[in-house]
Write a structure and sequence with these properties.
Blueprint: E1 6-12, E2 15-24, E3 40-42, E4 59-63, E5 65-70, E6 77-79, E7 81-84, E8 91-96, E9 100-103, E10 107-109, E11 116-121, E12 125-128, E13 133-135, E14 142-154, E15 160-164, E16 173-186, E17 190-194, E18 202-216, E19 220-224, E20 228-240, E21 246-250, E22 261-273, E23 278-280, E24 289-294, E25 298-300
């Protein structure tokens, strides 16, 4: 019989904390829970979690296989950490269709070695006030955040990170945000493609489309510290308020051998810089490349 809880020390780079880890079982082996063919089930099915208890405050919910859903009509869900692709060599997803997900700490998308993790927000609200919203914190991972609606509220001192090549060891990984609709409200820094030494590189991609809005009141960096970052904006709105600048390419704390690559392809939508500056860092500042491509369809204010 599976023990009720497994105590583990979560080492996230320089971050060490204790939390109870409840891992989602292989849903496709269980009858009566969602669609057995694709291994999909609601997070409320306690039988699918180790110990038979749905993770809550003080817990780290780890989805290592299958698809866990947060559906309209489910209770709002509050827990410390939640991981999609949370164990080595795993492939799993979280799909939120409604309600509110409250993170007391970190939301992880692909944090197991060699893992694939996907988080899809179709509706509802995600609150991450105290920790990171983190894609690809482990080597050789692939993480995807699909936003088709709803709201993400990201605040606090920890960043919204799309692929960090130096976290948990310098190694390549790729994170992608597909922002089709819905709103991101972020008072934290946003890093798209973070850290690279020329071999192990964090590659971040952010695709913003016509239904999407980003309200950010802090630094935005596309291609940071030797990472490769690319934002493609064919619609939608970015409102930049508060402190910090909007950077395309920055060499802040670049590891030896690394060169930042920042690119912003801008064919539609509105980039509204109300505070700070839009800075495209030139190649003579030590970067491989930094580009901001504009078209007549784009509006800049």
């Amino acid at each position: 019989m599976t023990s009720a809880l497994t105590r583990a020390c979560l080492a996230r780079g320089r971050r060490h904390r204790f939390a109870e880890r409840r891992q989602f079982r292989e849903i496709d082996r269980l009858g009566g829970f969602g669609d057995e063919a694709d291994g999909t089930a609601s997070y409320t099915n306690a039988a699918n979690w180790t110990g038979g208890v749905v993770p809550g405050t003080g817990d780290h919910g780890i989805v290592s296989n299958g698809v866990v859903q947060i559906n309209v009509g489910n209770p709002d869900w509050t827990l410390d950490d939640l991981s999609a692709g949370g164990t080595a060599n795993s492939s799993s997803a979280i799909e939120q269709n409604g309600q509110t997900l409250n993170m007391n700490s970190w939301l992880h998308i692909a944090d197991g070695l060699n893992a694939i993790g996907v988080f899809t927000l179709n509706g509802g609200t995600v609150n991450v006030p105290n920790g990171r919203l983190f894609l690809c914190e482990a080597p050789n991972t692939t993480g995807t955040l699909n936003m088709n609606g709803g709201v993400i509220n990201k605040s606090g001192g920890d960043a919204f990170v799309v692929a960090d090549g130096g976290w948990n060891g310098q190694a390549s990984r790729t994170g992608t945000v597909n922002h089709v609709s819905g709103t991101v409200n972020c008072s934290s820094e946003i890093w798209i493609g973070q850290s690279g030494d020329g071999t192990g590189i964090g590659s971040g991609i952010y695709n913003l489309h016509s239904g999407g809005t980003i309200n950010v009141s802090n630094w935005v960096a596309i291609g940071r510290s030797g990472g490769n970052g690319k934002m493609t904006m064919d619609g939608g709105v970015i409102n930049k308020y508060g402190g910090g600048n909007f950077l395309v390419g920055t060499g802040f704390s670049t590891p030896a051998g690394g060169t930042s690559v920042g690119e912003m392809d801008h064919s539609g939508g509105i980039l509204n810089i109300q505070s700070g500056e839009l800075q495209i860092i030139p190649e003579n500042e030590g970067f491989h490349s930094a580009h901001h491509r504009l078209s007549s369809a784009m509006q800049y204010t």
